[in-house]
Amino acid sequence: MTKSVLAKTALITAGLMLSVFLCEFGLRAYGVFERPSLKKSAAEFKASADGGKIKIICVGDSNTFGIGAEQGFSYPDQLQKMFDKEEPGKYKVYNLGIPGSNSSMLLKRFQGWIEAYEPHVAVVMCGMNDSWNLEDSSYFLFTKDANSLKSKLKRMLFRLKTYKLVQLAIINVKYRKAFKTPVNARGKGDRQDVIAELRTASDLAIQDPLRAKKICEEAIKDDPGNSDAYLYLGRAYLFVNDYVAAERSLKAAIEKNPRNMAAYTELSRLYIMKSETRKSREVIAKMNKVDPGSEELFAMHVFGIPGGGCVFRLLSHNLEELYKIARENDTALVLQNYPFSAPVIEEVVDDFEKRHHIPVVRNREAFDGLDYREYSVPDSHPNEKGYGIIARNVLEKVKELGPFRGGAI
Prior knowledge:
Rossmann fold, 60% helix, alpha/beta, 6% strand
């Protein structure tokens, strides 16, 4: 019996290991064939027929790659079309967006891209994935336990595409549960209209925080005891950088429903964004007492997400290194913020602009007053129309630059 159990265990283990290997092999093979242009050598690019043109590399993550739009309608693709329409043959735009990439991964590749493309301009939008993707991440430079076994294991695991795929799947499930399904949206009398309004506010939390705020305030007026109304109001305040109001609303959500784990999660993240690590840990400790088996608490333990203060230092460090490389190679650097609210990243970009006088494309501000849902897909990536606005913003900023290296204007 014992030998039989051992044999079955060994067979299952071998099967799992083979499955992981095949999955990893398949993901890496897909990456090679999906983006063949990235595999060209520097000599091939230097020999290509783009002499005399102003060359622009667009560096970033999925928001540069073009997730959310049909192929050919990313912002770099639309930027190329706009340049061709206004000044045919003068500009060449390269899309170097890599979905899921963090700023450290982009920094690692940046010198090679500069040598390969010899660009006049590098347009950079990054940082959104710094809080979860630790592959090649400089995050460990800013942690006290950089050489601990746990940190080393994380670095090793994040080199596996299979592991990152699983992490993304967990994030997706967590997002849908935490943002799409109210945990206490019933309120008085099981009001279905209030539930529907709060679901709308949840959808709008990133896309249109001001409208979400208004919906939540009306829901609170109708039902002052509705915990989720305060939760979504807190999220709306977070996306407009009003940390004081966000903290007040999230605490109210917990007061109305002490088991609203999503409210605890948001409050913990608020303190992380403010670099108030001690308060964040206190909130997590309360979560552990209230419901140690909650999905929200499990996700926080699984990810070990870096704090906002750490992300600030991490992104600032990586942008400094990008800036040095660009300056050493006489390449103009242009930064962008995201089309949706990303407070920590915006703070980094603003700080960098002040210190180095770097031109910044302010995409989020360009969408103020617009219904972002018309310009995005459900996960908040821009759609074709959204990328069109970003492309126009970049075009206007690039045309303000020059003369470029080699006399190009």
